[in-house]
Amino acid sequence: MRVRHRTPSIFSISMVDVLCCALGCMILMWINKSDENEVTAKELTTNKKDLFNLSARLKSSEAEEKRLRDLLAKIDTDKDGVRKKIEDLEAKLASLNTAKAAVDKLLTEQKKKLDELLRALAFAEEENATLADAGTGARLRVDDLEKRADDLARKLRAADASVGRLERMTKEIPNLKEKLSTEEKAALLLKADRDRRLRELAEAKEQYEALRKAKLTLESDLDGKKKELLSALAYKNRLDDSEKKRQQLEDLLGQRGRDLREATQAADQLKEEKRKIQDEATRIRVAAEQRFAGIELRGKRVMFLVDMSGSMDLVDEKTPAPTKWGDVRHAVARVMRSLPDLEKYQVLIFAEDVQYLLGKDGEWIDYDAKTSPDRVLDALARIKPKGGTNMHKPLEKSFSYRDKGLDTVYLFSDGLPNEGEGLTPEQDRTIRDETQRSNLLGKYIRRKLENDWNRTIRGKDRVRINAVGFFFESPDVGAFLWALARENDGSFVGMSRP
Prior knowledge:
By secondary structure, the protein is α/β, with parallel strands linked by helices. Helices cover 69% and strands 8% of the residues.
């Protein structure tokens, strides 16, 4: 009986040892897995902190966006600050893109870890089933494993929630980027509007300065005329006094023959003084005749430019001026008759285009004091003003005569240029304000004269441009014609409406 009892005991002990070894191995494996799960939980905690930090950074970015809106409100007074803030936004946007990439990478890693945790859970469940079959002696370990499995499931759910928050944050990043782009566009629009206002202010200051100078010139010319008139009146009074003295001397000669020699000498002196006074009066009269309303009349080879646009027959857009074109024609003839040194001339009439009034295109016409003024007057009488005002073409054609001895240009007009070269295709398409277009065309003509047509050439005098304005109401017209004349060594006079 002892023999039969020992043999089964040895066998039973061996089986129990095997089962215990197997169970011990599985328990060790489970402990290792639990350690790995604890490491994973720590990593999830770290990732959660990273996500919290990223959320804080996003909130900081929202604060930056608000600060950007405040800076944009001050764009009119702090251009450099706006530019710097735009650069900061670009840097922030780049940082957000980098953060987004980091979030995407982190999300991918979290998904991988989630898959690993799911596989570990499945393995743990298999181990749990194996342990349940191993015997009642391992029940406590199995319960412990189930508890750890529950903890692991909770951690997985927390990881899922973290992944969801990451995905929502990832979706919000493009919206933030779009918002930043909108703010940047608004900043650029504000900058463009401020630059446009600065340009308009500069143009207004330039026009005001031109008008102020024109006023000073006109006041100076008026003072000069007053002085000449006072001088002429003084000479006239002296002449009258001389005539009275001569008459007194002649009476004395009739009464006192004995004083004939002395009286003759006195008369000779008075006659010499009279001659000097008459010569001075003649000089003053000639000088006055050789000025047209303040313009000194000079020139041997002269180009007359006559504006025949539609406004030359109008007081304004709706009011005809029956005598205006006649006054213009007679002013041209009067200037021509008053030029003492005129030898050769040409007359260009212009509106939207330019043409020679008397023919002989590209050549000079010999001046005849008896016939030339009347010939020009009659030819202008056959012209009917119409069309726009292109000053570029007549001035360009006039200065083609510079190599042929052109020394003076007389321009007769009543307005600003409103057609011709001087606008870029973009300006021509977008600018509709007539005053702004005319100012741009006028500035282009003045630059063309300074840099090309009438530029300084060694050994050759510049061409004088004298301008005569008719019936103009806008101060811009006077400022343009005055600047055109003064910048080209000439004079400007404005003829008011009758």
